[in-house]
Amino acid sequence: MERKTELIPLPFRQGQGGGTIREDFPILEKKIYKKYPLVYLDNGATTQKPRSVVDAMTYEYYNENANVHRGVHFLSQQATELHEASRETVRRFLNARSSREIVFTRGTTESINLVASCYGEEFMKEGDEVILSEMEHHSNIVSWQLLQARKGIRLRVIPITDEGELRLDEYEKLFSERTRIVSVTHVSNVLGTVNPMKEIIRIAHEHQVPVLVDGAQSTPHFAVDVQELDCDFFAFSGHKIYGPTGIGVLYGKETWLDRIPPYMGGGEMIQNVSFEKTTFNELPYKFEAGTPDYVATTGLAKALDYVTSIGMNTIEAYEQELTQYAIRRLNGIEGMHIFGPKENHDAVISFLVRQPGVDSSEGDFQHFIHHLDMGTLLDRLGIAVRTGHHCAEPLMRRLKVEGTVRVSLALYNTREEVDALVSAIERVRQMF
Ligand code: PMP
Predict the structure, then answer these.
(1) What percentage of the chain exceeds 90 in pLDDT?
(2) pLDDT above 70: residue 4
(3) Which residue out of 223, 264, 270, 391 is catalytically annotated?
(4) What is the CA radius of gyration of the chain?
């Protein structure tokens, strides 16, 4: 009897390579320590790559490699067309109005630094303010601190509730006549909190303040529409959405990108150069100095094609179900403490587990198994999780922990892998 596709868990549905979706990712076949099947639950750090991404990049190097733009020869023109087609794929993926609004960068970090540096240069002076949140990744804190050191701007911080959600009431109070920009993460890479971005943007725009969205942890998990969000800038990384490392995107509304100065100087970003005066290239090239990683842009486009062919809504529905299953199973472990909100939880779960036989009051993590011990012992059983502060030290301080264990799920993860995680945690607990 034929099974209806929707009833087959996503990882086991038909993939692109003749087998299942899981089989599109060769690394998932790997045995760890030559013994345990890999259970890869560190997707928030980086995702694994499907064959279509790696194959397209290899093919390009072997068959189509030439530097892009300005070349008159066949290969260069072909490479340019491919590179610009990839930009169009990104535009479609984000539903940006124009491909002039899609700037290729090395990743979220570079995209945020670009905005902090260039927007900051043009529109911020001593005493002006940026609004961030308590759950930001270091890349969305330190970039602004560099500007602070240069220009004396001030950082205002939206606090979070004990549940790990932004305090919108406090957010509204942070606006002043010195507020110049809001820069907030779409999804927390620690708590899994999905922030009410449309509301955050609406409130900022009421104050005529633009918003930069850190989309590193949202783009892999649900559909993003920058026009619907009405954000002014949006940053994401290729490697977190099944694409290659070293490539990312900054979306910026044309009106803003036109008004801010270039980031780096060099080839590509100029129109005419003389020792007296240089004029800059049109968008988006004004922000793309030097030879771009045009092979990585092909890989990124293939990755976006891959998730689009499955459907972002299908991915979201599957991951939501898997996350809820994981939370339910993890909560069944004695002494389990999961951080973050009960609702609105993306595919990221941070936790600590109390040592057996000790009692501790709520919010006191003294007698909990150290995150590093847990991570190391889980690794011995073939389970890859992340431990530590997750590049969010201010948030760790707010949670009163030094670090957490973080499980982050992707479209290829299964219930069986969650079960393996739960059994492994139980085993680790018994060792204490
Ligand atoms: N922001 C968030 C929320 C992240 O999770 C990460 C990666 N952990 C980054 C920014 C930085 O991304 P990248 O290292 O790819 O630049």
Answers:
(1) 94
(2) no
(3) 391
(4) 23
Ligand 1 pocket, 105 CB below 6 A? no
Asked if 49 and 296 count as a contact pair (C-beta separation under 8 A), the reply is no
- Most ligand 1 atoms within 8 A of CB, residue of 137, 166, 213, 408 to mutate: 137
Best residue for ligand 1 mutational test, from 106, 112, 139 (most atoms within 8 Å of Cβ): 139
d(CA 112, CA 193): 20
Question: Which residue has a Cα nearest atom 4 of ligand 1?
Answer: 216
Q: What gap in Å lies between CA 377 and CA 425, rounded to an integer? A: 9
Q: What is the pLDDT of residues 79-127, one digit of tens each?
A: 999 999 999 999 999 999 999 999 999 999 999 999 999 999 999 999 9
Tens digits of residue pLDDT in 228-241: 999 999 999 999 99
Residue 2 has pLDDT above 60, yes or no: no
Mean pLDDT along residues 33-56? 97
| Ligand 1 atom closest to 189 (CA) | 5
Task: Tell me the pLDDT of the chain averaged across its residues.
Answer: 96
Tell me: pLDDT of 169 over 80: yes
Tell me what pLDDT residue 424 has: 97
What would the mean pLDDT of 274-284 be, rounded to a whole number? Answer: 95
CA of 166 to the centre of ligand 1 (A): 19
Task: Give whole-number Cα distances, 380 to 127, 385, 412, in Å.
Answer: 51, 11, 22
Cβ(43) to ligand 1 under 6 A? no
End-to-end CA distance of the chain: 48
Q: Do domains 21-49+311-431 and 53-309 have the same CATH topology?
A: no
Q: Report the CATH number of the 53-309 domain.
A: 3.40.640.10
Q: Which amino acid is at 154?
A: R
Q: Could you confirm whether 231 is annotated as catalytic?
A: no
Per DSSP, which regions of 88-215 are E strands?
102-105, 129-133, 154-158, 179-185, 211-214
* Residue minimizing CA distance to atom 6 of ligand 1: 216
- 21-49+311-431 architecture in CATH? Alpha-Beta Complex (3.90)
DSSP summary character for residue 274: -
Q: What is the enclosing helix (H) or strand (E) of 407? A: strand 404-408
Distance 188 CA to ligand 1 centre (A): 10
Residue 139 in contact with ligand 1 by CB distance below 6 A = yes
Asked if residue 3 has pLDDT above 80, the reply is no
Question: Taking the domains of the chain in order of start, what are their residue ranges?
Answer: 21-49+311-431, 53-309
Structure tokens belonging to residue 420 = 């393996």
